[in-house]
Every structure is written in C-alpha cells, then in structure tokens.
Amino acid sequence: MAQRLLGRNNVALVGSVIGLSSLFFSWLTLRPNRLAAGTHISLWDSAGWAATAIIILWLACLVSSLSGWGKSGNRRAIYLGMTANIIVVVALVLVGLTATLLVGDQSPLLRVSLGAGFWITLAGAYIAIFAARERLRGRGAWRNAVSWTALAAFGIFLITGLLQNLSIWQEFSGRESRFLQELGQHLFLLGGSVATGVLLGIPLGIWAVRSKGAERPIFFIANITQTVPSLALFGFLIPPLSALSFAFPALRELGIRGVGTTPALIALTIYSLLPIVRNTYVGLRQVDPAAVDAGLGMGMSGFQIFRKIEAPLAAPLVLQGVRIASVQVVGLVAVAALIGAGGLGWFIFQGIGQAAPDLILLGAIPIIALALMVDAVMRAVVRLATPKGTGKESQ
User: Fold this and answer.
1) Beta pairing partners, 142
2) Angstrom distance (rounded) from CA 208 to CA 224
3) CA distance 275 to 114
4) CB within 8 Å of 19: residues ≥ 6 apart
C-alpha cells in the first residue's frame, strides 16, 4: 500500500482535492436582476442526482490519483482524464437544466449566475486533465480524447441552447455584434503586435549572437521594458504620439493618435520582444559547434550554414519564444481597452464599472480560452518545426 501511495500523481491529487472542495460552495446564484444581490444555490439544492454523481466521480479521481502510476500509468491516466471530462459534462448539464427550471416563465430581468462551486470544480477538472495529458505523451488518440471531449460537449450544449438561460449567455445575446467586433479587434492587436515582435526580435537575437558589443545593450533594453507595468507603458506613449499627431495632421488621418490602436500596438510589441530575442539568442547559442564545423568542412558559406544548420536547429526554441510572447500578449491586450484600443478587455472594464460580474466574465473567459488555444497551436507548430532525431519531437 505504501509503495502504491509513493507512486501517486501529485498534480492529479491536487486537482481531485480542489474538485471535492467545490461541494462546499454555491454552484449558482439567483438574482432578481443583473445588479442586485442574489440567493446562493448549493449543489445539494440544485439536483440530488447531480450532487451524488459529481461526488462519486471526484472520489474516483481521488482514488486514481492516489494509486500507483507505474507500469499501468497510461491506463490510469486515461481513466482519470475521461472521468474529469465526464465531471465537466455533468456540471454543465446541471447548471444548464437548473437555470432553465429557475427562470421558467419568470421576469425577463431574472438572472442565474454561475457560482464559485462550479468554477472551482472546473479548475479541479482542468488540473486533472492536464495531469492525464502529461502522462499520455506519445499516445495521440487518447491524449486528444482527454483534451477535447469536454470542450466538444460544451460546444454542443451552446448550439443546442442548454446554457441559454445562464446570465453570462444573456449578456452575450444582448451584445453579440459588439462581442464579435471586440473579438476581432483583440485578434488584430494580438496578431499585429506578435508579428511585429517577430520581425524585430529575431534579427535582434541574431545580432546579439553575432556581436558581443550589441548583446549587452539589446538585453538591457529588453529587460528594462519588460519590467515597466503595462498601464504605465501605455501612459508613457500617449504624450509623444499625441504631440506627433498634432504636429503632423497627416498622421491623424492614418489613425496614429495618442490613444487607441497605435499606442497599444507599440506597447504590446515591446512586451513581446524579450521572450523572442532571448529564445533566438539561446537557440543559436545551443547549436552544436561540431555541426557548424561539418558545414564549413563541406565548403558551405556563412549564410548557407545559417540557413541549413543553425536556423533549423534553433527554430524550436525560437518558436517557443513566440509561443510565450503570444500567450503573454493575449492577456495584456485586455489592458489596452483602457486607452480606447478595444478588445475583449472592454467587457471586463464595463463590467467592473457597472458592478456586473457576468459582463466581466464575458470578457475574461474568451481571453482565457484564446490563451489556451494559442498555446496549443504554438506547441503543435513547435513540434512540427523540431528536426527529427533530436529526441525533442514529442515535447
């Protein structure tokens, strides 16, 4: 027994404990309108069958995380991951059906908000799924099943209208066109700033490798700008850009002003530089000198060595830097809404100003989902760019 406990998966254990703790919090909040205080509804009050099912499922996850993850670790990981997915599906069905019953034919102002218990169980399930995914490296079919089953179910529930009586969906329904507009602006700021960061950061990283004199100032400036708070950096850019737009009216016609998209793109590009520059530098530095010597022995020029040897071997680390920058910028774009640049942060700050939690979530949840999707896509790109035979293809 002691040997089995020593083989436990601590990450899965943490997720299971967090999931079980959600049973002590309210899962829904019934409000007479979007701003008023509401009545908290526990898991036990919403549906007895769901409470029993979720308790049993979380206990099953706990037992699985405590069991030995040795030779049968893959099987246990599949069991844990699929059980966590089922928990998410049951939780979504529970809150959707309960919200429908509570709203019924009542006032259209009535709101049913998701409570802390639901979000805590969702966090626990995510941690358990993450633990299962990490164990299932190299087993693509089961890894994908563990990763995407609950998300696919969520998409089906959205399409079928199961969740339409939740307050957050009602907030979306009343602002659908504005949501799509701000989502597009968020993606534009993300793509524009990261693309510019790549165009500037990779050459700077190469320059730092090739020139000892350039290395220190490049990293000094990149490190300093990274430590400046995002809101402060936006503020620093407003006076010079405002002065330029007033001095040269043609710039105003191009949309270059002290507030709005221009300062947001500049600031976000600055924030994306450090991980890209650093990873480019490290990626080129870690290239085996023997491979470079072999290229020289074959009569390759400096450019040919860079293109055929250094660049392919450094590409995975460079792309890791782009991945880090992209995920970081997804969240930072939200702050840009404070200077009129738009994006999903607009809903967050509108919700804070109106004391409307569901409006805040309407901006925050898509940002989190977007960060996870960007991370997943970039990880796939890194795997594709990793040369075969390096032993890093599955990372």
Assistant:
1) none
2) 16
3) 36
4) 58, 61, 84, 87, 120, 121, 124, 125, 128
Question: Tens digit of pLDDT for each residue in 270-295?
Answer: 999 999 999 999 999 998 888 888 88
CATH number for the segment(s) 176-385: 1.10.3720.10
The H-assigned helical ranges of the chain are 2-6, 10-21, 43-46, 48-66, 73-103, 116-135, 140-160, 167-174, 176-210, 212-227, 230-247, 249-253, 261-285, 289-297, 302-305, 311-332, 345-354, 357-385
Q: What is the pLDDT of residues 8-54, one digit of tens each?
A: 788 889 999 999 999 889 999 888 877 777 788 888 777 667 788 89
Look at residues 271, 235, 265 and name the one whose alpha carbon lies nearest to residue 342: 265
Backbone angles phi, psi at 39, to 5 degrees: -100, 130
pTM: 0.85
Residue type, 227: T
Half-sphere exposure of residue 302: CA atoms within 13 angstroms, side-chain side? 1
Query: Could you give the CA distance from residue 363 to residue 371 in angstroms, rounded to a whole number?
Result: 13
Does residue 260 come out as left (phi exceeding 0), alpha (psi in the -120 to 50 range) or beta? left
Q: Please state the three-class secondary structure of 257-273 as a single string.
A: CCCCHHHHHHHHHHHHH
pLDDT at 70: 60
Are 153 and 83 contacting, i.e. CB atoms less than 8 angstroms apart? no
DSSP 288-300: -HHHHHHHHHTT-
CA distance 168 to 162: 13
Position 325 scores a pLDDT of 95
Residue holding tokens 């699929």?
82
* Sequence spans of domains, the chain: 2-164, 176-385
- Pair of tokens at residue 147: 């990763």
Q: Cα separation of 335 and 234, whole Å?
A: 9
